[in-house]
Amino acid sequence: MSLLFFDTPKYAETHFKFKLPWSLLFRPWPEIFFDAPFQFIKGSEPVIFLVIKDANLFPVELKTAIIEIQQQNHKTKLEIPLNLKIEKSFTFIPIKLGNLSFGKYKVFPKISVQKGAKLKTFSRWNFPFLSPKPLEFQVLEEELPKPSGYFAGEMHCHTHYSSDHVEFGATPKIFQETAKAIGLDFVCLTDHAYDFAFSENDYTKETEPVSRFECLREEIKNLEKYPLLVAGEEVSAGNSKGENVHMTVFAPENYIPGLGDCGRYWLKNSPTLSISKILETTKAPCFAAHPKAPMGALEKFIFRRGYWESKDISHKSNKIKGIQFWNGSRDEGFFLGKKWWVEELGKGNFLLPIGGNDAHGDLNDCVSVKFPLVSLRHNRFHIFGKVRTVIKADNLSCENLKQAFNQNSLYITDGPALWWEYKENNFHLFAKSNKELGLFKTIKIFARELLPNQKLANKEILLKESLVLAPFENDILVRNADYAYLRAEATTEFGFFALTAAVPLNNYA
Description:
Blueprint: E1 31-35, E2 39-40, E3 47-53, E4 60-71, E5 74-86, E6 90-96, E7 103-115, E8 118-123, E9 135-139, E10 150-157, H1 172-182, E11 186-192, H2 193-196, H3 209-221, E12 228-238, E13 244-249, H4 275-281, E14 286-289, H5 297-303, E15 322-327, H6 332-345, E16 352-356, E17 366-371, E18 375-379, E19 388-392, H7 398-404, E20 410-413, E21 417-423, E22 426-432, E23 440-449, E24 461-466, E25 473-478, E26 483-492, E27 497-500, E28 503-504
Parallel strand pairs: 2-9, 10-11, 11-12, 14-15, 15-16
Antiparallel strand pairs: 1-3, 3-6, 4-5, 4-7, 7-8, 7-9, 10-19, 12-13, 13-14, 17-18, 19-20, 20-27, 21-22, 22-25, 23-24, 23-26, 26-27, 26-28
């Protein structure tokens, strides 16, 4: 038994239980549910996935899938005989939906399953006490806006190597197929450092982590070259107070240990390595993950978790490259993290804003534990690829992306494109949307003044703001002045959002 019971579960675990009390969620069936990408770009064929977890414990036979597809008032139904015996611990079965016209869809899937003499039919999933919710996705009519020379990626997600009592993720192959369907160019797979250190078959038993990390690399090597998959890590590291915080690492040279808050050792939860030590041992780009996401007192006490502080990003060698404060949704953690990012910009720390989703195999929506052993919940946050980091690079390769994180040509978005260009001694802000994302509702340009003594002003100023519906394409001129940096934010009429990195003007003096 481990302290992972007290962690915040990332998916609907129905098999983990103590001897006492009995879990109300426990069912002697594998977890069975349908999943699907949240959108499909032009030219990609819509597909949904039937996912079966823990069939090695509870073998089943899949009989027939019935898929009802609804677009507004129009409905179609597919009946697909499967007749498959499933005995593996983790199985993804793709079900192609054929050609679908542009627009938004709801899908209501059912599956009939036999276990022994029992035959049951499940709608969407077999999670106890949770009403079925439809899959929702959009087949896009227009190209996703993106400037030439930029590449869009998912910076924080978890594969099946992040499997333990409270979470699991999709396979790299499924992530790659989904990335292609939704319009991503690259994916950084950031599995937990502590999960690499424990057995896949028994997540309470220690194993040799380096070999498991290398297995992830080998799994990636055997896949297609595009979209680009990168083996990264989410490392539990020690902050300046000796507390556990999370750091994502983009393609580390070797496995980096970090078991501080893994939950397997009860209250023995001191960080394995400090942030400073990790930065000394790797040249890979490192990022503060969800640095200000609120947490409860129990989580702080049991797992010795804390928050990122200013001291944690001020290192001489291999400095932290950025802050991933957009973690799937614009919630309290987003606004607190963005505020901290802006404060650091005021100190001259030009950290990159990073967007990711912390998706644990969640392609369409997320089912997680609301109250351990008792109840589940459903939401549509932390969806793979929904929040993306878009970065300028010479071409798409792991090494070129690593180098690209050393400059400021980057924006984060869940839809529109927003980027800076320097032309004829002035800056131009380009904003691009489309009819599916909506016209721009607000475009804001922020600056921080550079005082005569070369110090930065205490506060940002709102340099320009558009509060009327702007065209789908905008080119806004900002003449050079005594500013330390420029940055921008934009929101569309349908609520989609984008934010640029801060561009230091002294680089262009």
